[in-house]
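> forwarded from #structure-qc
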């Protein structure tokens, strides 16, 4: 089980009071425990940080039919269309992921018409995700190794779509440190995980294209959060409107434990209402136990969701043995949405049936996006 241990600044204040009361032995024990929490929090943040730009190796190059000037490079688990002859197998390159927003620099000027944003595109019938540059765009005086994160060095930011006013909230706070955020890594970024966990039992859910929200009870506090921020109560904010209309606070309080539910909010005012709903709804995909700092494993997740009356995201496979390549998972991600059969689904989420904490990857949980959806809506 993954054990997230957050910083509780009340502990820091308690420790200060203790030293004033001349209890040094207990004080030092408390300080060591707090430092342990800090280290675990930093580790957690490092595990979920996304490297938008990193130094990687060209694993393979293949020709593209009917494309004399282009060829296909394989970087990590990504397929990237490049100029023919520009790279060779084994070359180290700067790979920049989709959803990256590049700065206005001479090297990136050719992307001005695209708003300097890296998207999923199709060239000569070939899906291309991300872009590769030679190491010459990096400072010559520095040495770089495979895996080095150069996102900040190049001034690259993650593209974030504009937040509608009804979702933003006038007063916000940082996202609670005692709950993990809902970001999922794409399998193309961690392809080696597939070999490491070959044969592992997973479950698969549909990835819904909405906006993620978190609702939690911690003691007397009821909290409402968007993807990255905690939102103060606001009668015009959609997350709060949904909380009041559905009685989420009372449901969580009556459950009697400190937990957080995390789900996707969809409906008329979210992402152009692709699912053609007449009301806003929350489809949950995580339940997090704040007291034990662990995710609720799949079977209990279903039981608790049903008991509390929460609708989960569509579950596609309740038990799926992992024996896939990146390409086969991309094929699996294709298909129509269970919420709207006329819509290609955004993708799929795969998680271990029993919670696994991996020292390199963190929680064994990843997403695979449907390229047909990306080409249509990005």
């Amino acid at each position: 089980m993954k054990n997230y241990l957050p910083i509780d600044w009340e502990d820091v204040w308690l420790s200060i009071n203790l030293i004033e009361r001349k209890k040094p032995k207990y004080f030092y024990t408390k300080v060591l425990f707090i430092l342990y929490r800090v280290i675990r929090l930093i580790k957690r943040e490092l595990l979920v940080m996304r490297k938008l730009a990193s130094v990687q190796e060209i694993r393979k190059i293949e020709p593209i039919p009917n494309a004399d000037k282009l060829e296909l490079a394989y970087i990590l688990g990504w397929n990237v269309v490049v100029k023919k002859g520009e790279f060779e197998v084994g070359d180290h390159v700067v790979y920049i992921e989709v959803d990256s927003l590049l700065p206005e620099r001479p090297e990136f000027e050719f992307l001005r018409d695209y708003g300097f944003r890296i998207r999923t595109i199709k060239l000569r019938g070939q899906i291309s995700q991300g872009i590769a540059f030679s190491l010459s765009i990096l400072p010559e005086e520095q040495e770089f190794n495979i895996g080095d994160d150069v996102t900040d060095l190049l001034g690259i930011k993650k593209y974030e779509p504009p937040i509608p006013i009804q979702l933003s909230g006038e007063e916000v706070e940082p996202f609670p440190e005692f709950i993990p955020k809902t970001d999922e890594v794409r399998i193309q970024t961690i392809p080696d995980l597939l070999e490491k966990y070959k044969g592992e039992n997973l479950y698969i859910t549909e990835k819904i294209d909405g906006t993620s929200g978190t609702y939690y009870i911690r003691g007397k506090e009821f909290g409402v959060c968007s993807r990255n921020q905690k939102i103060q109560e606001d009668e015009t904010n959609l997350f709060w409107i949904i909380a009041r209309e559905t009685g989420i606070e009372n449901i969580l309080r009556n459950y009697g434990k400190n937990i957080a539910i995390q789900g996707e909010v969809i409906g008329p005012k979210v992402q152009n209402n692709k699912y053609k709903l007449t009301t806003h709804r929350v489809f949950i995909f995580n339940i997090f136990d704040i007291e034990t700092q662990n995710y609720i494993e799949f079977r209990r997740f279903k039981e608790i969701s049903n008991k509390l009356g929460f609708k989960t995201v569509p579950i596609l496979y309740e038990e799926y043995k992992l024996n896939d390549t990146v390409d086969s998972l991309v094929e699996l991600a294709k298909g129509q949405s269970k919420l709207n059969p006329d819509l290609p689904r955004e993708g799929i989420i795969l998680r271990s049936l029993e919670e696994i904490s991996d020292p390199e990857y963190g929680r064994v949980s990843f997403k695979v996006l449907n390229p047909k959806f990306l080409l249509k809506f990005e």
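QC bot note: The chain has three domains: 9-48, 53-158, 165-377. The chain is about 25% helix and 30% strand.
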